[in-house]
Amino acid sequence: MPVPSIDAGLLERGGVRLAISGPRATITLDRPDVLNAQTPATWQALRHIGEQLDPDVRVVVVRGSGRAFSAGLDRRMFTGEPVDGEPGGLGAILSLPAAEADARIASYQAGFTWLRDPARVTIAAVQGHAIGAGFQLALACDFRVLAEDAQFCMAETGLGLVPDLGGTLPLVRLVGYSRAAEMCVTSRRVSAEESLRIGLANSVVPADGLDGAVDELVAAVLKPMAGAVSETLSLILAAAETPTAEAQLALERAAQLRRLQSFAALSAQS
Q1: pLDDT of residue 239
Q2: Phi, psi angles (nearest 5°) of residue 28
Q3: 71: helix, coil or strand?
């Protein structure tokens, strides 16, 4: 279903496809010839989708076309070749004043951070490689459903860089400091089986069952009322940072009162 507010040209430049079906949106990284490697145009397209999606979209599925989820950064980003019509790749950032360089990286991060907004549930459907930026894109989602051939790898440190697309916080929350540090510093590959065991994956299925498993999960998260889901996600996100149990209890009380008020408003309309 076409979305009038979405810039189709921007999505095409970023190698991204968007499909809307009722309350579900499916974002597909669509550069299978380079294993869905990402460029700044990819992040711009992702950010644009997040800014323009209709509030009625309750679930977003992120996936890759072909045999990989995403192999991370396009190699041209490291060589100085023109990327998305701009010269210099990553090195071009160094030519900017400090504030502009910071803003440039922040704009890249914005393509990922909206996926953690509790206003909607986000699901990464991962097959094959999810490396570097690909891993961080999967980490930005609420749930990760993996095919048996999936492999995660935080490759940035091995390239002399750091993970800077928002992946470090969810990784630590999922697997703990020590394991997250080991994965990032060694850049080792993590199999689907290990991902399930340590909490990176919600489920692992045969490759030919990935679509069906994602469809089942989408159906399950659409059953509860939208407000109940978003309030619950907000509470779970807050739990990791709320300083005391009493503070979390207060957040729960406030959220429940908002839900009861919503029920009362619905009853008054009927």
Answers
A1: 92
A2: -120, 120
A3: coil
Query: What does the alpha-carbon distance between residue 8 and residue 81 come to, in Å, rounded to a whole number?
Result: 25
* CA dist., res. 115 & res. 137, Å (int): 9
Sign of CA dihedral 163, 164, 165, 170: positive
Q: Coil, strand or helix: which one is 12?
A: helix
Phi, psi of 103 (to 5 degrees): -65, -35
The Cα 210–Cα 28 span in angstroms is 14
Predicted TM-score (pTM) of this structure: 0.94
Which is nearest to 184 in space by CA: 204, 164, 198, 213? 164
- What are the Cα distances from residue 145, in Å, to 68, 107, 184? 14, 27, 21
130: enclosing H helix or E strand: strand 129-131
Q: What is the pLDDT of residues 92-110, one digit of tens each?
A: 888 899 999 999 999 999 9
- Contacts of 217 by beta carbon, 8 Å cutoff, 6+ apart: 123, 143, 145, 202, 203
Q: In this predicted model, what pLDDT tens digit does every residue of 21-75 receive, in sequence order?
A: 999 999 999 999 999 999 999 999 999 999 999 999 999 999 999 999 999 999 8
Q: Who contacts 111 (Cβ-Cβ below 8 Å, separation ≥6)?
A: 42, 43, 44, 45, 46, 47, 50, 165
Q: Rounded to an integer, what distance in angstroms lies between the CA atom of residue 133 and that of residue 173?
A: 18
Q: Is the dihedral of CA 51, 201, 63, 32 positive or negative?
A: positive
CA distance 92 to 113: 23
